[in-house]
Amino acid sequence: MEYVIETKDLTKFFGKRNIIYHLNLKVPKGVVYGFLGPNGAGKTTTIKMLTAALRPTYGEIRIFNLEMPQNRVEIMKNVGYMPETPIAYDDMTIFDFLTYMGRLSGLKKEEAREQAKKLMKYVGVGKLALNKIKELSSGQKQRVSFASALIGDPELLILDEPTANLDPLGRIEFIGKILSLAKEEKTIFVSSHIVSEVEKMCNYVGLINQGRLIAQGKISELTEIEENDYDVSTSDNKTAIEFLKEKPYVREVWEEENIIRVKVDPRFLDEFFLQFPKYLTSQGIRLKLFRPHTSPLERILMEKFSIGEESD
Ligand SMILES: Nc1ncnc2c1ncn2[C@@H]1O[C@H](COP(=O)(O)OP(=O)(O)O)[C@@H](O)[C@H]1O
Ligand SMILES: [Mg+2]
Fold it and tell me: Are the CB atoms for 25 and 213 separated by under 8 Å?
């Protein structure tokens, strides 16, 4: 597989504190990769290393198959980066700032202006074009910062908590934009501490906690890891549970909101599949639902670590 971002044993110490431990990120081309973890997990530190704003203590980073930071200039030509902290150029107007960023990225003056206009509209700050950065709310600054990341139509976007300061409507709008960028085959690496947001926006995820990557992969695959768990519903759950409780091939069985959850011993799946429906039929109990249990991302997170509440 071709990875747009790949790290090997990426590690960072601040003084004696080991903040990032042997991170092996693998971000395939064209995915929306949610870098999900609680506050203080190490997301920003990692992103700063990916964009060469910080040097790793050791480990390797390859972006577009080129080594970072050795090929920083070449790599960053094709990366739109939205840092966690909003823009520093306080005294510039939005229009001047975006034009300036366009010029820095190599656009001609006219092109830079055109892009600035187009992007201001796109992110919803068109009417504020002549306002100074310092006059903006944090949400407006975040919009401008997103516009700045999109200058030059980069192949890869690296966004550090891009929705942190947006209001609920702004978030929905933003997620919609990410989904449409994904359709254009862009690769998007986006950090967040909000599970529901990652579920809506991303198809890949890397879970980071205390500087360690604890799971990584396609969300649809990660949420299917418990393949020996089944959800069952019948016209008489009580009797069905009594039956299952007695069976050696059932490790655990309990009821959750009218759904019977069954953990089956994987060595005896056949017995479960054959005997259980047969028993139900013999008792005149109707099977209403019978499917593998898919844990949503949230559940996996709860199992791996307790992630903070949404801090809106
Ligand atoms: N420059 C720094 N010097 C020392 N410690 C730092 C520095 N930057 C971040 N940290 C620490 O590293 C940890 C991870 O921080 P950060 O990467 O910002 O987490 P996140 O973005 O996931 O919230 C935190 O404990 C933070 O206090
Ligand atoms: Mg951060």
Answer: yes
How far lies 153's CA from each of 12, 175, 241, in Å? Answer: 31, 18, 57
Burial 135-168 (b: 16+ CB within 10 A, else e): ebeebbbbbbbbbbbbbbebbbbbbbbbbbbbee
Ligand 1 pocket: which of 12, 14, 49 to mutate (most atoms within 8 A of CB): 14
pTM: 0.80
Axis crossing angle, helix 138-150 with helix 94-104, rounded to the nearest 10: 30
Model confidence pLDDT, tens digit, residues 278-303: 999 999 999 999 988 766 677 677 66
The predicted-structure confidence for 123-145, as pLDDT tens digits, reads as follows 999 999 999 999 999 999 999 99
Cα 162 to ligand 2 centre (Å): 10
Q: Whose CA is nearest to atom 25 of ligand 1?
A: 40
Instruction: Please list, in sequence order, all residues whose beta carbon lies within 8 angstroms of the beta carbon of residue 246, skipping any fewer than 6 positions away.
Output: none
Domain limits, the chain? 3-218, 229-294
Secondary structure class of 51 (helix, strand, coil): coil
CATH ID of 3-218, from 2.50.20.10, 3.30.565.10, 1.25.40.10, 3.40.50.300: 3.40.50.300
- The ligand 1 atom nearest the CA atom of 42: 17
CATH topology of domain 229-294: Alpha-Beta Plaits (3.30.70)
Q: Which ligand is nearest to the CA of 36?
A: 1
pLDDT in tens, 216-261: 999 888 876 556 889 999 999 999 999 999 999 999 999 988 999 9
